[in-house]
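Re: the request from the purification team.
They wanted to know what the chain is likely to look like in 3D before they choose a buffer screen. I agreed to run a prediction and write the result into the notebook, where they can find it.
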Amino acid sequence: MPSMSKKSIPSSTKSRGMNKSALKQVATKFLSSQKIIITSHLRPDGDSICTSLALAHMAEGLGKQALIINHDPTPFPFSLVPEADRIRHGQIYPETSDCIILLECASVERSGQEHLDGYFLINIDHHYSNFHYASINWVEAGAAAVGEMAFWLARELKVKLTPAMANHLYCAIASDTGGFQFSNTNAQTFEVCHYLVKAGAEPSRISELLFNNYSPEKIKLLGLVLSTLKMNPRGNIAIITMFRSFLERLGLHEVDTEDITTLARSIQGVDLVLFFKEVDHNTYRISLRSKGEVNAAAIAEYFGGGGHVHAAGFTVHGSYECLIQEVPRTVEKLINNFVGS
């Protein structure tokens, strides 16, 4: 087989099941720092982008300097988010800082940043898979988004949420929960969003930006990807593919494809979607989205990847003709083993 190589917050609002020790450590370092740099993972998403902007507001509200530096550009539609143009792209080094906050990075490598060994690192993540590599590791697998975690940080810092901050955090959460459709949505998610709306977040405007802002090319891409749909004989695994030629034909670059995966997962009887994305010759990034008892993170970890219980990913190398047969076959065996054990 080929190589598988996130107004004042009421004091009565309490975070349930959260690592309060790590939260306090982050808040202490945040307060003692004068220059804070915020970065996120390669191919940043709405959660990391909007949470970065909210954290920068928090830092500046406390009289500190804040920079946001991501390795990769901001994808559409998040490039339309207010203040998205303040995000720099490239390497952090040799910029100086008192600390660097890495959002949703299971490892430093996941950020695409190099030469960070001499920096004080703060690792903030809500994914199940994380290597706890930083000076402070605040990892909450039960949080819907790092935007939700940033809300609790604001409370710990006694920062009053402005409408801009509330909008950024609400956008982060709405994005990462698929408009509150995904299994990471829970009662605390709605409680946090309740206070964000009271602080000035605008749900209808954010939903319009996130979910009703597609270009004609994106809709055409949707059709091309769905035309590749394959099902395993049992009908519980859906496989879809996005070839680079699709993007080239439509003049698209990196695009948000979560909605395509959601459509495939909506098929009756489907427990898991395998979304093959061609990233280079004989190299595919596979996104997993699951339902029910199927643990996407465990499957991804088998192939050297990771993620959430119901949202994960990994990378494989080999010919498409071989991978499209062997990966689903292996995944089906893993599902049978995991669910049956």
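For the purification team: Confidence is low (pLDDT under 50) at residues 1-14.
Please add any questions underneath this entry.
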